[in-house]
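User: Okay, second chain of the day. Same drill as before: sequence in, structure tokens out.
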Amino acid sequence: MIAHLFKDDNMYVTQNNYNLSMFYTFLYPLSAYYSYFNVFKYLSVRSIGALLTALCIGLFIGDKFISFLKHKQQNGQPIRLYVTESHLSKTGTPTMGGLLILLSTIISVILWCDLANAFVLLSIFVLISFGAIGAYDDWIKISTGCPNGLKSRLKFAMQVILSLIVGFIVSKLTPSELYLSITIPFFKNFVIYLGFLYFVWSILVITGSSNAVNLTDGLDGLAIMPAIYVAGSFAFISYLVGHTQFSNYLYIHYIPKAGELTVLLAALVGGSLGFLWFNAPPAKIFMGDTGSLAIGAVLGSTAMITHHELVLCIVGGLFVVEAISVIIQVLVFKVGNGRRVFLMAPIHHHFEKKGWPESTITIRFWILSVVLAIIGLSTLKFR
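Assistant: Same drill. Structure tokens below.
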């Protein structure tokens, strides 16, 4: 009975659905001689394998990678002068640590994911393209010694173009009943058709998610742990929407082949945990825009693929609050003749200015992220 429940076209591979993952290709044929090699056809096993592989890669190469970045960057990431004095002690810490996350994640994806899956290929494209924008931004900061980096308009324009490309591809891969539409949490089969505005929506979701994670990345470990919670939550959501019986039971729309994103997101969780090992206070390396833009974008694109964009706003609520705090601060400052709502934005700096220790802010924000993840996942059942 249990085996039948978990039997799904996204969880095992048939002759009509050939899997191009490295481990499946080379190890699954051995199941003809040794039955335990059958495990490589299951989505759950490949997800665990992807997580552990990415984690081990990150831990194994982490120290050497940090030494390499220190040698290349000399002075490390430039520190903004208007932040609290505690940040000045971080001068010289290398940045572009997102490369460690992307490298370990992509290697793990190649080993464990079905590379014939269009959603997986699209997610890899998102990771690499947004990571490239972030890396270029980080490199400008390092080479010039200026914390401003890439011009904001150019950076935003590149993100918008990529978001439109992703939104267009997602619309073509989406089932007909969800074409150019969004779903609403807490309601069964409630779909809103956006038409042309769907592409504006893709910009808001993907570019917004990318920049929100980037804004949160201001303290040691602050952004990466909530990103892990969100990636883990959407790995679970991807699993459910890609499973016919679970999606029918929960009254959520079935997205064929979306279940394979579970493996990719599990790899991202593993790569992020490997990075956190070195980013935990006091950080030996910073994620930089290389990691934050890429992670935020792939979370946004996953939300669009699974049609759970509004759930992303709940699960990733911490990122939303950080972004909104900046928007409020800028608007009030411009309209109110220099008035400020917060002592400093994003909001984690506000609490720093109030005297909260950095570790206190980080851990409390992590707790809030866990609560928001639970609330977001609960929307899957309460419909």
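Confidence is low (pLDDT under 50) at residues 1-16.

User: Thanks, on to the next one.
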